[in-house]
Amino acid sequence: MGGRHRTDELEDGYTPYKEPQPRRRRGGRGKVLVPLAGSVALAVLLGVAAFVVINRDRGAGGCGGEALPVRITASPDIQPALSQIAERFNKAAHDVDGRCATVTVTKGVSATVASSFSGGKAAAMDMWIPDSKLWVTNLRARNQEVPEAGASVASSPIVMVASGSVVPNLKKSFGEASWGGMINAANVANVDGPGRKVRVLVLDPSLNAAGLGALLAAAGVARASGAGEEQLVGALKSLSGSTSTVRDQDALLSSLGVKGSKAPLGISSEQGVWAFNKVKKPEVPAVPLYPAEGTINLDYPVVVVAEDAAVRKAAEAFRKELGSEASRKTLQEQGFRTPDGKGGKAISGSAGFQAKAPQAIEPPDGKTVASMSQTWSRIKLGTRLLTLLDVSGTMALPVPGTGLTRMQAISRIAVEGMKLFPAKSEMGLWEFSTHLNGQGVDYRETVPVGPLTEDMNGVLRRDVINQRLVAARAKSTGDTGLNDTLAAAYEQMTDEYQSDKINTVLILTDGAGNDDPDGGISNQQILKRLKDRFDPEKPVSVLIIAFGPDAPKGKRQMDALAKATAGDAYIAKNILEVRKFFLEGMKRRLCAPNCD
């Protein structure tokens, strides 16, 4: 009606309240029906309200009764994402045998959780999601009662990592990222290799799955390529040093930006690199480098440890939730990949990240994992070494074609070998011939065993030993009282055995064997003494390195002496072989006393 407005209406059709008009009263039934209708209406309203409240508390799925708690311990890197998923899961109210499953996710370092297992069980959790099944594999290698690792909920490849500022120069000296290149750069015996310009950092494999996975991948690649086992041992020996091993991934990533004479190259998970750049926001971001041979992935398996049937059922329901599209998206947003390697926008190919998953290397079996773990723990042991230097008369003879005497060549071998041992090592030096320290005493203590860094009258023990080696001279009239010397040295080293070190007696000789015309211990007697004194629980091994034309003559006896103590004997053709022999000796001591 053109331009006319009803005075009893406002905009949007709202009608104002009007005072109700009085109605005529009807008799009879109205008095009963009105209260009854009100009661019915109130009951309906209360029923609807109760339905809304109950279903609000139950959630969309609907469940009642008391809560059914499910306690999950997860690796710290994935715990925040899992907590988001658990929150959604709890709101959906999953009914399990008439109870509401309630999931809580707390963080726990995988190495710490693994060490808490006792009798196949771990307290205070119903489900465990470590960063790698390697922890479970290692546990089950020792105890089959530990539950098997279930399906993975996410993945993240183990990568090499460097600061973006050094990547161009790193590629010039190191080449493309590869496990083989890492071994070459870290090998303590490869003095002319890329290690001159590259400093390799690793995560302690006893505390980090990324560190253990990297060593397993590198070892597998080295063996497949035919590289000598001593190269791997040389790399492990270098990486086990205090300046190369880092306990924490964030600490390693933070150290990449520290400038030095060598470009630092580290190990990390891909997700760890992403998280570091996002949270720490370094001035120069860290860049992931994907090994050419492929890599082992962190795979975040589900391990159900609950014994209660209802809790196990609830845990299984949450495991299925982790495989949903929504859950996978949450994990991808936090820098993880799906179990089959699909990444999200977080790692879509920018800032050095590779959108396509790198080739996966299948993790080795439990025996191999346990062996690597044992090798690492033993190679990190310190060294306690007593060197016995032959100064008998034959050591003054020339070595054809070298311009050196046997004494000079052996001394150079010793100095070269010393370079392989870290500063924390303990060493000493004896010389032996015949009657060196009075009649009938065939040896003399030149430098007592002690820390290489210990001050000895203003000079470090390492330097004192090197000086004595260079200054050593053969006793022109001296014979070779090897057996008496070895008996005394072995007794001292076994009496002073240190369990946190690899204890070794090293003999440097021209290989002529024992030659003591004035008597002394016979070859049979020294073998019996060594066998009697050798304790597999406290092994002291004998390592022999011989150099010179007479060495092959004494090889049989040298082998027998070494074998009696789970040691080894080598004949060096030239000084360049020395590092190899020292590394082979280290490798053998890693398996002692059960070497093949």
Automatic annotation (TrEMBL):
Keywords on record: Membrane, Transmembrane, Transmembrane helix
Pfam families: SBP_bac_11
Superkingdom field: Bacteria
SMART domains assigned: VWA (SM00327)
Residues annotated as transmembrane: 32-54
Gene3D superfamilies the UniProt entry points to: von Willebrand factor, type A domain (3.40.50.410)
Keyword Transmembrane found: yes
The VWFA domain, residue ranges: 384-586
SUPFAM superfamilies per the UniProt record, alphabetical: Periplasmic binding protein-like II, vWA-like
Chain segments carrying region Disordered: 1-29, 329-368
Protein name listed in UniProt: Substrate-binding and VWA domain-containing protein
Organism encoding this protein: Streptosporangium vulgare
Lineage of source species: Bacteria, Bacillati, Actinomycetota, Actinomycetes, Streptosporangiales
